[in-house]
Design a protein that fits this description.
The structure is a single chain. The chain has 11 helices and 3 strands, in the order βαααβαααβααααα. It is an all-alpha fold. The chain has a single domain, classed as Rhodopsin 7-helix transmembrane proteins (Rhopdopsin 7-helix transmembrane proteins, Up-down Bundle), CATH 1.20.1070.10. Strands 2-1-3 form a 3-stranded mixed beta sheet. The longest helix is centred in the middle third of the chain and has 34 residues.
Length: about 300
């Protein structure tokens, strides 16, 4: 499809054209990106090597942190590099690759959040059947299905993107490549493609959000029958999950469930969705999770003890 286009590269306008603000963008988002990678890597390592974090919830949290790191990496490094570039050029192929990666890891985030909600539902509402339903083999199969589903979703997005002919201009009023800003540059009527985009990405975001919120309402309603200590622990876990769900799905629904129109806050919403949320997730899951904090302390003490013996 690329051979049919007269455009072989795009110019990203980024978040700002002001040189001073560009430096501020670099500093702020460098801190965010490093914090995202370090925070999620810390969760991944802790879950991997801590014997106390072997439950399905932490199994899914492992993959959520992995997806968050990759999701942020699909946009943040280019945003940082472009902060020092006078002309923010991205080739057609790199643009398509970014669209694929953005939707692959973003969709993986959504699937893992659904699995985490299902895990909490079974643990709280059907505790006697929990060991049988949430077996290790079942969790592994669910993650494999999530990767397959995310891959199929991303392929669908790429097929839509490759159908867009570009004959100029090639200025993308965004800091990354995605279907919404690309639709504005296409030399064709994009109504049908936007309809497919809304029915794909928009439907996934909206339906998943509704399912998740209903499941957590059922979970919170069922906590009435638990002891005070059990309610406190379950509420702490569910509150963390609900916070992450709202932070993830709010911007996603705003971006992908509307007609092909642009708003001044679009780029900032996208920044929060692609960089802000992956940064906040590890903070939410560690600060509000006593088991995770204790496991991190134990691993840190073991590391210090092993280093002192050398």
């Amino acid at each position: 499809m690329q051979q049919n286009n007269s455009v072989t590269e795009f110019i990203l306008l980024g978040l700002t054209q002001n040189p001073m603000r560009q430096k501020m963008v670099f500093v702020i988002f460098f801190i965010f990106y490093v914090g995202t990678v370090v925070g999620n890597l810390l969760i991944i390592v802790t879950i991997k090597y801590s014997p106390t974090l072997g439950s399905p919830m932490y199994f899914f949290l492992f993959y959520l942190s992995l997806a968050d790191s990759c999701f942020s990496t699909s946009t943040a490094p280019r945003l940082l590099v472009d902060s020092f570039s006078a002309k923010k050029i991205i080739t057609y192929n790199d643009c398509m690759t970014q669209v694929f990666a953005l939707h692959l890891f973003g969709c993986m985030d959504i699937f893992v959040l659904i699995f985490m909600a299902a895990d909490r539902y079974v643990a709280i509402c059907k505790p006697l059947h929990y060991p049988t339903i949430m077996r290790r083999q079942v969790c592994i199969i669910l993650i494999i299905l999530a990767w397959i589903g995310s891959f199929i979703h991303s392929i669908a997005q790429i097929i839509l993107a490759l159908r867009l002919p570009f004959c100029g201009p090639n200025l993308i009023d965004h800091y990354c490549c995605d279907l919404q800003p690309l639709l504005k540059l296409a030399c064709m009527d994009t109504y049908r493609i936007n309809l497919l985009l809304v029915s794909n990405s928009g439907a996934i975001c909206s339906s998943s959000f509704v399912i998740l919120m209903i499941s957590y309402i059922v979970i919170l309603h069922s906590l009435r029958n638990h002891s005070a200590e059990g309610r406190k622990k379950a509420l702490s876990t569910c509150t963390s999950h609900i916070t992450v769900v709202i932070l993830t799905f709010g911007p996603c629904i705003f971006i992908y469930t509307r007609p092909p129109t642009t708003f001044p806050m679009d780029k900032m919403v996208a920044v929060f969705y692609t960089i802000g949320t992956p940064f906040l997730n590890p903070i939410i899951y560690t600060l509000r999770n006593a088991e995770m904090k204790n496991a991190m302390r134990k691993l840190w003490h073991i590391k210090i003890a092993s280093e002192s013996k050398r």
